[in-house]
Amino acid sequence: MHRLPLAACLFASLAAAPALAQSGSYKVLSDTKVGGAGGWDYIYADSADRKLYIPRMGGSSRITIFNLDTLAPIAEFPETAGHGVAVIAGHGFSSSKPVAMWDAKTLAPIKTIDVDGRPDGIFADPFNDRVYILSHVSPNATVIDAKDGKVLGTIDLGGAPEQAASDGKGHVYIDIEDKASIAVVDARTMKVAGTISLAGKADGCAGLAIDAKNSILFATCREPNVMTVVSIKDSSVLATLLIGKGSDGAVFNPSTLEAFSTQGDGTLTVVKETSPTSFAVEQTLTTPPGARTLTLDTKTGHILTITSELGPTPATLPGQRPQRPPMVPDTFQILVIGK
Predict the structure, then answer these.
(1) d(C-alpha 305, C-alpha 104), whole Å
(2) Which residues contact 148 (CB under 8 A, 6 or more apart)?
(3) Single pTM value for the model
(4) Structural element, H or E, at residue 56
(5) What is the DSSP track for 108-159?
(6) Which residues constitute the domain of residue 154?
(7) How much is the pLDDT for 19?
(8) What is the rounded average pLDDT for all residues in the chain?
């Protein structure tokens, strides 16, 4: 109900914003076709153990695992229908139903964990070695002890969670896609301790990254297509920067003070934090359409994203949600982006 007014109230400020920077030092370093059937959602780099996890969804649901350095296939978990993966405390977890748990070094399965809801996003918090399984339906978050796989509890976030980030000090931030807000979760009590409202500034936020040192959040939002930079200290919006259309993820590299957002329209946006109060679009890199989620290899500083060649978009019938274009068979690919 509020989406048109939101776009209207931001039009003037965004119209005055500088044009997106088209040139810069980031480029596509490699484009590796790995093929295979099935759709995709999230991609996850285990930088410590040098593994890249890509869940594939559809008729042949599975998690494919690649060598993070060479992108050679290592292993596959068949019949594991998950959207994402997280690794922490020596264990891997999938956002599936049930959740799969395995040894991160050997890839040996440990057990499955029953959860409610409809698992989608996933986040591992190193503050206390807990895994958050995020769901757009109740319960919005299921918290698991990463050491033994025990379910510790659930959290009502009051809306549909997308991506999470931790300050490393006991707070987990989760953007709520349908509420124009960011939930602040107390990692010790597993309760919502507060809410950062983005009402009137941005909505439909699907990506969230954090500069923990400077207490700054980067929320990538689809209404309108902006990266909203928020101060955790006082919940103020520090900047609203234009990005491409269809963001579905964000990461922050503390080594370079850059935030990244991938968009389904075939762009990757790089935002530079020049100071804790100054931010600018540093580069907009062209990528193949559909590359909407991303992960950061903290060892190399590389960004990895995934997509495939896409066919014509199906017609949308009255009363239907717009459909995504179909994959062209065996064109699934991994992109490595860096300097």
Answers:
(1) 21
(2) none
(3) 0.91
(4) strand 51-57
(5) -EEEEE---S-EEEEEEETTTTEEEEEESSSSSEEEEETTT--EEEEE--SS
(6) 38-197
(7) 44
(8) 92
